[in-house]
Amino acid sequence: MRRKHRRSLARAWAVFLLATLWSHTAFAHAQQGAAVGFFTGFWHPISGLDHVLAMVAVGLWGAQLGPPAIWLLPVSFPMVMALGGMMGLLGVRLPGIEYGIAGSAILLGTAVMFEVRPPVAVAAALVGFFAIFHGHAHGTELPPNQSVLLYSMGFVIATGCLHAVGIGIGTVHRWAWGQRLVRVAGTLVAVGGVFFMWKAFT
């Protein structure tokens, strides 16, 4: 069964990468910046603690829920986030970006803290909803004279790495002490989200 799940996870990531590269062809008309665009995009999610908390929480929650959520949530988030990034790059307005990002940390952290187990479709829809806010924030902050394609690939791949960190931490969920540890991690994420929500209102 484990080998089967690993094969399913590998296929899902392959589909995700192909879909990501395909979606980014829509940006081919943009200015051709240096390769630094990739590193700028890669650094953008990692440099913001609010983004880090929410993206790690996605991996934690997926690990808690187990297959198929353990691969479906970390694949759904970057794919929808790429759509949000496209909206930001095209100048499509989306109100409440900061509140949406902070709210994602609060709700996802709370879901991990209480080990909420909704249907997988509901969990994926919730994750996808918040991914739009994160992607839009990345898209609107594209530096001038940098490649849209490379920048977008950078922040999508960085997001996948953060999900992998969450999944890695969540693997301890198989033990009783690990379950408590994961729930504590969810609590920290939720508390961080409350802090960023407070900052958004002040």
Description:
The chain is mainly alpha-helical. The protein has one domain. It is built from 8 helices and no strands. It has helices at 2-24, 36-47, 49-65, 69-89, 97-113, 120-140, 148-170, 176-201. 48% of the residues are buried.
Keywords, separated by commas or semicolons:
single chain, globular, mainly alpha, 202 residues, 8 helices
SSE blueprint:
Layout: H1 2-24, H2 36-47, H3 49-65, H4 69-89, H5 97-113, H6 120-140, H7 148-170, H8 176-201
N→C terminal distance: 50 Å
- How many extended strands? 0
Helix content: over 70%
Average pLDDT works out at: 86
Enumerate the spans where pLDDT stays under 50 for 5 or more consecutive residues: 12-34
Radius of gyration: 16 Å
Total number of helical segments? 8
Strand content range: under 5%
Structural class category: mainly alpha
Write a compact overview of the structure shown.
The protein is an all-alpha fold.
